[in-house]
Amino acid sequence: MGAISDSSATFPSSSAGTASGGLTGSSVPLGGLRTLVVQQTSLERPRETWSKKMDFLLSVIGYAVDLGNVWRFPYICYQNGGGAFLLPYLLMAVFGGVPLFYMELALGQFHRSGCISIWKHICPIFKGIGFAICIIALYIAFYYNTIMAWALYYLLSSFRPTLPWTTCTNSWNTANCNRYMSTDHNVSWSNSSTSPAEEFYTRQVLQVHLSPGLHQLGSVSWQLALCLLFIFTIVYFSIWKGVKTSGKVVWVTATFPYLVLLVLLIRGATLPGAWRGVVFYLKPDWEKLLSTTVWIDAAAQIFFSLGPGFGVLLAFASYNPFHNNCYKDALVTSSVNCLTSFLSGFVIFTVLGYMAEMRHQDVDAVAKDAGPSLLFIIYAEAIANMPAATFFSIIFFLMIIMLGLDSTFAGLEGVITAMLDEFPHVLVKRRELFVFGLVCVCYLGALSTLTYGGAFVVKLFEEYATGPAVITVVLLEVIAVSWFYGTNRFCNDIQVMLGFSPGFFWRVCWVAICPCFLLFIIISFLAFPPEVRLFHYHYPPWTTVLGYCIGVSSFICVPAYMVYHLLNAKGTFKQVQ
After folding, report:
1. Is 192 annotated as a binding residue?
2. Cβ distance 187 to 434 under 8 Å?
3. Do 489 and 6 meet the contact criterion of CB atoms below 8 Å apart?
4. Which of 58, 84, 177, 263 is placed for a possible disulfide with 250 were both Cys, Cβ 3.0 to 4.6 Å?
C-alpha cells in the first residue's frame, strides 16, 4: 500500500523559482510534478501568515510548554528513578516524540491545511482523523480551562495582606487544620492533619466536600463560573482575528512564565532544606530502569508534553512561509520544551525540600501527589510561608494562568483552522462569529467542571476522554502518512520545501519506530488501566465505562468516515484511498 517511489525525481532548490514552488526552469518527472501541483494549488488561495517568525516559535513553545511541564514531569521523574529517568525520557523523545513533532510541522507547512482538509492531499479515507481531533480538542477545552479558573481564584485571593490559606481560623477550616511551622515545636504533624492550604483548595475553592461523587455533582460555583468566564473572554479576544493577534499575545504569555520560573528558582535555592529536594529529584535509582512502568511513563510524558496529534502543529505550520525551515524549528522548540520540564523540576523540588524541612518529614511524604494538588496545595503553602508571600503568590498564579492560556489559544486555533479550511465559503468571512460560538460551546461544556464535584469530572476527562483516543489517532496518522501516502513521497515534499530530504534516521522513525512507540503506549494503557481516585474518592466501576465511552465518542469518527467514504466513492479500493 506504499506509494510509488519518487526518489529519482529532480526538484528545485529552496531558492529556485517563485515562492509558489519554483515551477519554472526545472525538469520534473511525474512524481515531482504531482508534488509541485499540490503545492501550487494550496498557495493559490490567499492565506494568513505569521507577522514574524518569532510569533510562530513562541506560539509553538507556548503550546508545548504547559501546566504538565510544571507539575507532571518533576513528579514522574522522581517517582521513576530520579536522574535515571532522564535516560528513557531522552530516548523516547529522540525516537518517538521529536520525529512526530517534525512530521506534523512539515505536513502542515507543505499542504497549508488544517487537520481535516489536509487529508484530501494525503489519503482521503483517513479524513475522520481530523474530525476526531476536533472533538478531542473540545473535550480538552471543557476541563483544561477550569484549572486556570482555579488559578485565577487564587490570584484574586492573593491581593490581601495575609494569604487566606495560611490560617486555620476561617469559616471553611476544620478541627484537623494544622498550621505547622518549623519554629513551633509544640505542634506535631500527624497523618490526620490537614494544612490550611489543603482546606482552602478543597473546601473553599473546589468545595468538593459538598459532593459525594460523580453521581451527585451539586450546584455550580458562581465564583468559579465568573473566573472561567473571564478566562474565556481573554481567550476570545486573543484568537478572534487569527494568528496575527494571537501571535502578539504569546509574546507575553509564552515569555513571562520563564521569568517567573527563574525568580522562583533563585528564591527556592536560598530556602532551608532546598538541597534535600534537589537530591531527591535527581538521585538516580538505576534499578528502576528494569521496570516497564518507567518506560511507559517516559513515553507518555514526552508524547503529551510535545503534543502531536491535537491538530495544533498542523494549524500553526500552515501559516508559515512555504520555504520556512520547519526542521530547525522542530529541533529548537522540542528542545526548549524538554529543558523547561527539567528546569521546572528544580523549581518544584527546592520548595518540596523546604516543606519537608519545615514539617520534619521526608521529601517523599511531602511530594505525595501529582497534578493540580502539587501546585494548589504544596506549592501554595510553601509560598505562604516565605517572606514577601503576597508577591510570590501573585506572580506564581499569574504564571499558571499564562501557561494555560497559550495552550488554550493553540488548542482552539487547531479547531478553528480545521473548520475554516474545510468550510471556507461559509466560515472564512464569519471567523469572529464562529470563534464566539466555539468559545460559548466550550464554556457551556465546562459547566459540569464548575460544580462542587467538578474536580471529579476534570479527573475523569483527563484520564479517559483525551489520552487513549489521541494516541490511537496519532498512530493512524503516522501509518497513513508513512504507509499509505508513502515515506518517499513525504520526504520528497520536504525536499521541495527545504532543499534537502530527511535522512535515514527520520525515515526509519516514521515507518517503524514511531508506530511501535505509539502502539507501546496504547497496549500499556489497556494492559495497566489507571486506578483513578481523587482525594478520598475512589471512582466506581461505572465511571470507567463512562470514561471509555467518552474516549470512543471521538475516535469513532475514524471508522465512521471510512465507511461513509467507501460507500460514496467510485472506483477500486486503491483509487479511493
Report:
1. no
2. no
3. yes
4. 58
In whole angstroms, what is the distance from residue 99 CA to residue 65 CA?
Answer: 18
| Residue carrying the nine cell digits 465511571 | 543
- Position 27 scores a pLDDT of 36
437 annotated binding-site participant: no
The pLDDT value recorded for residue 571 is 64
Sign, CA torsion 24/26/29/34: negative
Was 331 annotated as part of a binding site? no
Whose cell is 535516560? That residue is 87
Neighbours of 573 (CB within 10 A): 10
Please check if 407 is assigned to a binding site.
yes
The enclosing H or E element of 465 equals: none
Q: Flag whether 337 is marked binding.
A: yes
Q: What is the DSSP letter of 521?
A: H
pLDDT computed for residue 16 by the predictor? 33
| pLDDT at res. 286 | 87
Nearest 5°: CA angle at 502, between 500 and 503? Answer: 115
**Cα–Cα distance, 430 to 40 (Å, whole number):** 26
d(CA 488, CA 5): 6
The series of mean pLDDT values per 10 residues for the chain, 577 residues long, is 36 33 36 45 64 92 88 83 88 93 95 93 93 94 94 94 88 80 48 81 92 91 96 94 89 93 91 87 85 86 89 94 94 94 90 83 73 83 87 93 93 94 90 95 95 93 85 92 94 94 94 92 81 84 89 92 86 59
Cα distances (angstroms) measured from residue 381 to each of 144, 195, 271, 348, 384: 23, 8, 14, 12, 5
CA dihedral sign of residues 367, 369, 372, 377: negative
The domain segmentation of the chain, as residue ranges, is 1-44, 52-576
Q: What is the residue whose three cell numbers read 517523599?
A: 364
Does 6 show up as a binding residue in the annotation? no
Distance CA 550, CA 218 (A): 21
| C-alpha to C-alpha distance for 382 and 365, rounded to whole angstroms | 15
* Residue 69 in marked binding region: yes
Amino acid occupying residue 197: A
Contact 329, 57 (CB under 8 A): yes
Return phi, psi of residue 538, to 5°: -95, 125
What is the CATH number assigned to the segment(s) 52-576? 1.20.1740
60 is in an annotated binding site: no
42 annotated to a ligand binding site: no
Single pTM value for the model: 0.87
